[in-house]
Design a protein that fits this description.
three-stranded parallel beta sheet; 16 helices; 360 residues; mainly alpha
Length: 360
């Protein structure tokens, strides 16, 4: 299919024998005759003849808007709730597929070891937006056996901090030296090389510093043996919340970095952070895992997501201003997908909302 028939020549299809067997040229506008390999006029279907003129005018008017947050902002409130309700699950499923696209590469790299892939996904989740990929690289850079064979939380910290180059920073505290010595031993034993990407501290609140998040992840992996199996066995929010009860070693209760002591604070995971882990890591992973197995439990993931409260951010707030009721986390995630994958790139013709308002 082409927008215009002349695109046949713009794309040089007349020189490509792979197009010799084309039996119908479907175009929006038949602006130039096209001939097949036998120099016979190619049968052409011009779609603009079948599109209502009012629809074209309305769509062009939408596209001409420059200052609208979304093109259908003036009409969004007219979309029936049932249309949105059906569209939310499709949008959320699309978002899940995007979030789990990396899993295929991780599975291949680990010889289909789901426990390893879950470890990498969990590390990425602890890193959030700013350090997610760096934390994932840390997890990918260490053999899983090196983690489960550690004899203490501080050994796992040494492993992660060393691979993340955090131990490369100058510090005089004895705990820094302890981790540095431990990492030297582990890196030699497992022939490790630190990742090239730098973790970020800039513009992060201290509780989200990579030191604190990696320390929490280290505590979790040491104290929750067979964590992946336990995640699979849980089937209620309360059970997952309980599994995510954790803290850090005592050093991090009085530090955010190695150099400056702070007022004592036990760094447990907050409920909002647990919800982020469930929404962005655990539930997407379970969806992908159950889909791989062909299990009916894949559908239950959507039910679990609906038990989480809707996220509050600028995008969900804007949709709410347009008259959209956002009841749970599935719908707030769907709103993010709608805005980024459809509205921002003007894919109104692929959107259920666009179809409804354009009367397609």
């Amino acid at each position: 299919m082409h927008l215009r028939a002349s695109d046949w020549f713009a794309h040089k299809h007349e020189r490509d024998s792979n197009y010799d067997n084309v039996i119908l040229h479907v175009v929006w506008e038949d602006d130039l005759p096209v001939y097949d390999a036998a120099q016979q006029p190619m049968p052409t279907l011009q779609l603009c003849d079948f599109a209502p003129k009012k629809l074209i005018v309305k769509y062009e008017r939408w596209l001409a808007q420059e200052k609208k947050w979304i093109l259908c902002a003036d009409d969004f409130h007219r979309v029936p709730e049932i249309v949105l309700h059906q569209f939310w699950e499709r949008l959320y499923t699309e978002r899940l597929m995007e979030k789990t696209a990396l899993y295929k590469n991780w599975l291949a790299a680990s010889n289909n070891n789901w426990e390893v892939v879950f470890f990498v996904a969990l590390a990425k989740g602890f890193g959030l937006k700013h350090n997610g990929m760096a934390f994932a690289q840390v997890a990918l850079s260490v053999p899983w056996k090196s983690v489960i064979q550690c004899k203490s939380v501080s050994q796992i910290e040494a492993l992660f901090f060393g691979q993340a180059r955090i131990l490369h920073q100058e510090a005089t505290h004895a705990y820094h030296q302890e981790l540095t010595d431990c990492y030297a031993h582990l890196s030699h034993k497992y022939k490790l090389k630190p990742i090239s990407e730098r973790v970020q501290f800039f513009r992060l609140r201290p509780p989200n510093f990579p030191t604190i998040r990696l320390a929490q992840l280290s505590w979790l992996l040491f104290h929750q043996q067979r964590f992946f199996t336990k995640i699979l066995a849980a089937d209620t929010l309360d059970q997952w919340y309980e599994l995510l009860q954790l803290k850090t070693t005592s050093f991090w209760e009085t530090h955010y970095n190695f150099n400056t002591p702070t007022k004592k604070r036990v760094h447990r995971l907050t409920k909002p952070f647990k919800d982020l882990l469930l929404l962005n890591t655990i539930f997407p992973f379970l969806f992908h895992y159950y889909a791989y197995l062909g299990s009916d439990k894949k559908g239950r993931v959507l039910d679990w997501v609906r038990e989480l409260s809707a996220e509050k951010n600028t995008i969900t707030a804007k949709f709410a201003q347009l008259g959209c009721t956002i009841s749970d986390a599935l719908e707030s995630q769907a709103c993010l997908q709608l805005k980024t994958a459809y509205c921002d790139v003007r894919k109104c013709l692929n959107c259920a909302v666009g179809h409804q308002l354009l009367n397609l």
